[in-house]
Amino acid sequence: MPARPIQISPSMMCADFLHLEEEVRLLEAHGVEWLHIDVMDGHYVPNFTLGIDYCRALAGATRIPFDVHLMIEHPERHIEAFCALPGARVTFHPETVYQPVRLIERIRELGASPGFAIDPAQPVEQFRHLIPLVDQVLVMTVNPGYAGQKLIPHCLKKITEVRDFLKRESLTADIEVDGNVSWDNIPKMIDAGADILVVGTSSLFEKHRARQQSLRDLRSLLETARLAAPERQAM
Ligand code: DX5
Ligand code: ZN
């Protein structure tokens, strides 16, 4: 069975807001698989970012499916709106809701693809009952809340822990990695078992670098790293 290609999910909070259409056309031309949308409420995390109106406007302008990352308290109160986005995958932090399993079921009922996120402070073991229920496990490699932070090194091991758990249980969920996905960290993250990379200020949206060139470099780096990662060959 051919090894799964590595998917790209650009973090749109890092895009040039004043040239958003241009950005999206370029991402489409390079076949990116997802658009990563960070929704923050200033409560669960000390920052405010993209909301549902931004998502609806963007959804009207592109066919790239949305990879919605909810960093909000009580996501269950807003889930219908985000699940209505075309082809949406909706990921929340389990500690922000009383019944995470009920929310996962609700996301599926609404026709979207569910995922949950693991904060740097949380052990993977804690979520062994949630992992079989979702299409995506998002391993945060920085503290949620801001772009431009540095990788928290122990989080690399958590990618491998999730990978090993999925293998042991013969599960096929994607492992997404979010936070300081830089040119140097990308090979380590792929080697650890990542499937989807949220690319932000430390690679795709790096300042002083032509976006077109960054997208080309990213694709070739992903392919080189994929072919070099023994773990992926065995998948
Ligand atoms: C942080 C967000 C990330 C962030 C990534 O809480 O979830 O998606 O935008 O930005 P960089 O790549 O700069 O760490
Ligand atoms: Zn994110």
Main β sheet profile: 8 strands, parallel
Strand content: 15-25%
Straight-line distance between termini? 8 Å
The unreliable regions are: none
Bound molecules: D-xylitol-5-phosphate, zinc ion
Q: Which structural category do the helix and sheet elements fall into?
A: alpha/beta
Average pLDDT, rounded to a whole number, is 94
Order of helices and strands: EHEHEHEHEEHEHEHH
In total, how many beta strands?
8
Helix content: 25-40%
Gross morphology: globular
What strand order characterises the main sheet?
Answer: 1-8-7-6-5-4-3-2
Radius of gyration: 16 Å
Number of helices: 8
Secondary-structure blueprint of this entry?
Layout: E1 7-10, H1 20-29, E2 35-40, H2 52-59, E3 66-71, H3 79-83, E4 89-92, H4 100-109, E5 113-118, E6 136-140, H5 155-168, E7 174-178, H6 185-192, E8 196-199, H7 211-228, H8 230-234
